[in-house]
Structures
1.
Amino acid sequence: MDLTLHVWRQPRAADAGRFETYEATDISPDYSFLEMLDIVNERLTREGGEPIAFDHDCREGICGACGMVINGVAHGPQEMTTACQLHMRHFSDGDEIWVEPWRADAFPVVKDLVVDRSAFDRIIEAGGYVSVRTGSAPEANSIPVSKPAADRAFDAATCIGCGACVAACPNASAMLFTAAKVTHLSLVPQGQPERYERVARMVETHDEEGFGNCTNHGACEVACPKGISLDFIAMLNRDLMKATLLGAATGEEG
Ligand code: SF4
Ligand code: FES
């Protein structure tokens, strides 16, 4: 396949970015999108150019590092597929492809397609953990967890923190990510002692980091490569209301 790429190039956060055009020739339909970028980068490097910076790690759809907007769609045209698992067979010979970074104030561009997603880390630091001594692994059935709760908690826990939900949202809200991280703990017994403090602190940090409000567009759910459901935002909102009544954000008992 021969393709024309228009790639966002931005040397540093403070610089103005622009699209640069590259020809990607002799690309196998079996290459992943990132392998195609690797080929382009090898050619760029051989010609003395600056390779395109993009984030990646596992290349197996599990780490969440590889965020980029492809033809205006977070992670590209395949549903439930990260950019690293997107294969070139989903494009056609001769296609023009536009590649740009996540666009959100809370995700400043570091370089080219790489953005700083440490705001997600700070939301997790605010409460996405269970602060009890867990000791060695307990016997699996010593704390009963119902099958429906275990399944829902697992569904929430499949969020890989990629940020596509933010990139797709017209408000740049990270509420789908936050809801997944709140809910996977609030559904299991181990998450109960800090349940309401957790949701209050994580939502407060979400807002402080500059993410927008959720207004139920649903674009996040469509963009999410792990199929995280909007239902988790509804569950977060119910817990947040209880937290507000309990004064959980300030530690005041209601
Ligand atoms: S909710 Fe989905 S899109 Fe958002 S960070 Fe998690 S996996 Fe990525
Ligand atoms: S590189 Fe890990 S999910 Fe894409």
2.
Amino acid sequence: MAQFIKVAGTADLAPGEVRCVEVAGKKIALFNLEGSFYAIDDTCTHRGGPLSEGEVSGDEVTCPWHVAIYNIKTGAVLSAPAPRGVASYPVRVQGSDVEVEV
Ligand code: FES
């Protein structure tokens, strides 16, 4: 059953920052976009590039390996060569904890 799990503190990730977190056996890219947190799978659906190491522009992230573009808020793929989007996960802030539902 899905549950919210703490993955970071709110102070750990400044606006504009992203990091890879591991939770429940999944690698998840956690983004802070202007104070709101979003979580999507870290692994690009093309050849497995780490999206947490990609360039962020607005609400889009570019895979560092072959420049596929994803929507950070939904995980949808916006640009080839990735064949499909990645999973996105609900995020909530509880006090100073950032929690992801997995
Ligand atoms: S691994 Fe991400 S675009 Fe190729």
3.
Amino acid sequence: MAEPRILIVDDEPDMVDNCARILRRAGHRCLTATDPHRALALLESEHPDLLLTDLKMPEIDGLALLHRARELDPALPVVVITAFATIESAVAAIKEGAFDYLPKNFSVDQLTLVVERALRQRRLALENRNLREQLQTTLGLDNIIGRSPAMAQVFELLKKAARSEANILVLGESGTGKELIARAVHANSPRAAQAFVPVDCASLPENLLESELFGHEKGAFTGAVRTKPGLMETASGGTLFLDEIGDLPVSLQVKLLRSLQERQIRRVGGTALIDVDVRVVSATNRDLRESVAKGQFREELYYRVNVIEIRLPPLRERAGDVRLLAQAFLKRYGQARVLAYDDAAIAALEAYAWPGNVRELQNVVERACALAEGDLVTVRDLPDHVRVGARRADTPAAASTPGEAPLTGTTDLGLKEAKERWMAVLEASYLRQLLERHQGNISAAAKAAGIDRKTFHRLIGKHHIRG
Ligand SMILES: Nc1ncnc2c1ncn2[C@@H]1O[C@H](COP(=O)(O)OP(=O)(O)OP(=O)(O)O)[C@@H](O)[C@H]1O
Ligand SMILES: [Mg+2]
């Protein structure tokens, strides 16, 4: 904050002039506005360090201005000026985040004092913010959760790679966070202020994808009623994110390669060459090297888009991150109603293999939050396969005894599976009682059950009952 600037807003010009005169005399730089619309424009373009505003103005009142100002810059202190008669509204403004208020008949000292205090507050807020930002860039990005050594390596590489202009290929199984990483690369790059333009190479048929990417001239094909610039042009100066690049049709691979080499494109149906300056971040869950070997992906394009490769580990290889992610998603989906997991639920989540990676975990937590009855997520709120998968990992014997499975928690099964589960429990219990009544005599028990001996043997084997 080299030379702090104060924006003074009041619909009475005298008031604005008075304040500005006093504050300039005290050595401050001031911007002024008597029209709140103009004030908004100044807030957006000038980024002042303090807003001093009247509360009662026509059209946009001081409170609305306060809201907008704090949206634009949460560290901006706002001082509201108010007539004695409307002291309640001044209090309301404080509750909305104003730093302080001044009565309309303020003295020179009162004004300079509150301004000094507000600017001191501003300085502290900015220092804090800088610290936080430094911390964020050293930790990777705030919204990418992970402290496992595997992810620490990813963050390390991401930070270095983002600073460069090199094209980046993000590899990883489905749901590992490839798009999140691509966005983080852009956000940490010198191009961050320009556009991040995602293109899903798998979602469109070839000719549509071509005109999406390269644009088209009016009349280039039926339906091309007007000229449309392509996404490569939109991304110029910024980052083009080619998602599922492994699915890009070969003809477009060739065209893309040429435009990346020449840094120019030609719209579909056009003749003019248009300069484009894009950094390409791509993602795929395919083995691109293998696609190259099979002739499905152009080798030159592979090397062009894969200058730096960021490999995202599957969730099962990120020690400790499941718990961390589960907590973060609980905060997001629990909506202050569901607050925690019980021990068994956390254990089940940690034991499960997560073939769908972070996306699967996110879905499971969202669902569990919807199902949880109290403020705790219990194993009953987890899908059956997660629970079973977990049990299998914990106690191998337990999972192979479906007859022993508890009846609780079957409500998230379909009726058919639930019935099967109940029937298995009933069957096991029936067989056990029958055997007890016949002192373990299988022939007698089978006879009483009305089935042959061999079938009885098979059943008690299935339920792990000792004859
Ligand atoms: N480390 C993480 N921290 C927080 N959220 C994450 C993390 N990784 C992934 N997510 C979330 O999981 C979901 C899936 O992530 P994303 O779409 O980036 O995966 P992807 O690898 O692109 O998947 P796909 O291959 O299926 O397209 C998103 O909602 C994303 O926000
Ligand atoms: Mg994706």
4.
Amino acid sequence: MTPAAERSSTRPSKTLVTGEFEFSVADFRVIADIAKTEAGIDLHESKATLVYSRLAKRLRSLGLATFAEYCATVRGNDEERGNMIAALTTNVTRFFREPHHFEHLRKDILEPLADRVRKGGRLRLWSAASSTGQEPYSMALTVLSVFPDAAERDVRILATDLNPHVIAHGKKGQYRKEELVDVPQNFRSKWFESVPGEPDSMRVCDAVRSLVSFRELNLMGTWPFKGPFDAIFCRNVVIYFDRDTQGMIWRRLSNLIVNDGALYIGHSERVSGPAVDILQAGGITTYRKKSGVRQ
Ligand SMILES: C[S@@+](CC[C@H](N)C(=O)[O-])C[C@H]1O[C@@H](n2cnc3c(N)ncnc32)[C@H](O)[C@@H]1O
């Protein structure tokens, strides 16, 4: 906790949101401080109502009466801090979100690598904030459109996210039928299977799932792999970070991309900081690592 948050948590503090639970400015600061330090998430007071509604469920399930009690609990309890961060994350995603990225991946990254991969060369892709799996599975379906036998090749897709609940969902690979509207019909019939007893859902086939490894990973922590990756999708996550943190993440990601490899970012994001010097624009919210950069 910052000294300011510490000081303000020891004296009565203005109520920020009125409702079932008392939620003061000091409580908000404690929560915002933890979200920033642990997950890079930069919360402004304008988000107080959102924070309240996302955490109210946690207070109910713990049987607490005020956010001050919740803050005290979170301070001394790693597991609840994890639950709090998970509850604060926005996990909205969908299959083939921003379809131009998958077009670019197919035409400009995968097809040019076809010879290398067919001769046994490696192909590595990373979905760095995978949420519930729609993004890495869209990458896998794009890979399969170029390499239908990808499961027998040296092809891997890493899918990581901070939130263990979304990682578990991704591993399961089961989605409601209405979530598949953006999956082309030929992919749907070839790579999804029905789920016994659940007529409204479909599951991603084993051949697709076997290409994707889901892991919990906080982008703010250490990354226990060296890559390099032929392409990284890091979309709609750094938007929650402050500018310095964004620059740091872009730099770390760029260092893990092969020369000429691609970085795909969210529609309202922009690469900033030192990575600007080693990446060049490759299309809408698409960057390529400059060739000749020392790996
Ligand atoms: C809006 S979703 C984006 C999903 C997908 N990339 C897309 O664009 O559709 C943002 C994801 O970032 C994850 N996230 C937030 N902070 C993170 C961090 N510090 N490290 C890793 N993942 C984080 C959240 O858990 C959430 O699943």
